[in-house]
Amino acid sequence: MSEFTNVAVTKKANCYFDGLVTSRTLTFPDGRIKTLGIMQPGEFEFGTQARELMEIMSGELEVLLPDEEHWRQIQGGESFEVPANAKFRVRVRSLTDYCCSFLP
């Protein structure tokens, strides 16, 4: 899906790591939430509350998921899931455009 319709967009940006990671929150009529964002090159650790689906629209990164020993290579057009109440790390290799869906 290349666009979303009938959503509310929160104007205030979510900024992390001194602005190297930013996103905007989309809220759908049924209550689902997604964020659309950009990650600059760097290494970052994130924590989750809900299960997340990270869709990488463009760019390149490596991800180290919970309970895994090896980094996974992820490129534009690929995705990965992160369980709820977990931490994961990313090494962003190039400017990365992403969509994060918060899953039930």
TrEMBL record:
Organism, as annotated: Thiocystis violascens (strain ATCC 17096 / DSM 198 / 6111)
UniProt EC number: 2.4.2.1, 2.4.2.2
Chemical reaction(s) catalysed: xanthosine + phosphate = alpha-D-ribose 1-phosphate + xanthine; adenosine + phosphate = alpha-D-ribose 1-phosphate + adenine; cytidine + phosphate = cytosine + alpha-D-ribose 1-phosphate; thymidine + phosphate = 2-deoxy-alpha-D-ribose 1-phosphate + thymine
Top-level EC class: transferase
Gene from which this protein is expressed: ppnP
SUPFAM superfamilies cross-referenced by the UniProt entry: RmlC-like cupins (SSF51182)
Name this protein carries in UniProt: Pyrimidine/purine nucleoside phosphorylase
Function: Catalyzes the phosphorolysis of diverse nucleosides, yielding D-ribose 1-phosphate and the respective free bases. Can use uridine, adenosine, guanosine, cytidine, thymidine, inosine and xanthosine as substrates. Also catalyzes the reverse reactions.
GO molecular-function term, one example from the UniProt record: thymidine phosphorylase activity
TM helices/strands, residue ranges: none
Entry keywords, A to Z: Glycosyltransferase, Transferase
GO cellular component, as recorded: cytosol
Family: Belongs to the nucleoside phosphorylase PpnP family.
InterPro entries given in the database record: Ppnp, RmlC-like_jellyroll, RmlC_Cupin_sf
